Amino acid sequence: SSQAARSDAPTDYGRTKWQIEQLAMGANGCVVRPGQVYGGFESGLFGVLSTVVRKLPCYPAFLPAPKIQPIHVDDLVAALLSCATTPGLESSILNVGAERPISFTSFLNAIAHYWVKRTRLPLPVPVVVIRLAIAVLGTNLSKKMGLERLNSLFDLKTMETTEDLKRLGISLRSLHSGMSRSGDSRRRNL
């Protein structure tokens, strides 16, 4: 599913994910809500963010800074495998991501520093300006320009992940470690 899944989510994406969760729960399924997935192949939102950081001389530092809970793609796979093999998780919603949220700006800085290995400067962008642009442009044009995704980012709620990670027997790697190209800097450090 998604950290954005809620019945009252500000975007179609979050509301649709919530509706799918309800269907899964009704079928005695297990729902996994990951935080911001990163690492591995540059695909999905991580791929978009990596491309933006690689190509532009600066990255947006939204004010106030939204908080995210990153999870490396390999840790997410381990969580999914554990979910599939651990009895008693039927009809559960499991939140998986960093136990302590970090600012989106810190995440973009980590991509710049550790992933694309380039110096990039944060450019302050007030959230109110983005929300005003969404209101002025309207829903259809905002969707086409990708601004609605930002609205979802600004509205993320913090997930409680500690107990769910324990239930799954998962220990997440650090963001720094996960941002190395191998996905784990422990080997390099050895």
Describe the structure concisely.
49% of the residues lie in helices and 15% in strands.
Describe this structure in words.
- The protein is an alpha/beta fold and 190 residues long.
- 49% of the residues lie in helices and 15% in strands.
- It contains nine helices and eight strands.
- It has helices at residues 12-26, 44-55, 73-85, 104-115, 127-145, 147-154, 162-168, 175-178, 186-189; strands at 31-34, 37-38, 58-63, 67-68, 71-72, 93-96, 102-103, 121-126.
- The chain has a two-stranded parallel sheet with strand order 1-6. Strands 2-5 form a two-stranded parallel ribbon.
- Helix 2 crosses helix 4.
Query: Overall pLDDT, averaged?
Result: 93
Based on helices, strands and strand pairing, what is the structural class?
alpha/beta
Q: State the end-to-end distance.
A: 36 Å
How much β-strand is present in the residues? 5-15%
Properties at a glance:
alpha/beta; two-stranded parallel ribbon; 8 strands; 190 residues
How is the secondary structure organized here?
Blueprint lengths: L11 H15 L4 E4 L2 E2 L5 H12 L2 E6 L3 E2 L2 E2 H13 L7 E4 L5 E2 H12 L5 E6 H19 L1 H8 L7 H7 L6 H4 L7 H4 L1
Helix pairs in contact: 2-4, 5-6
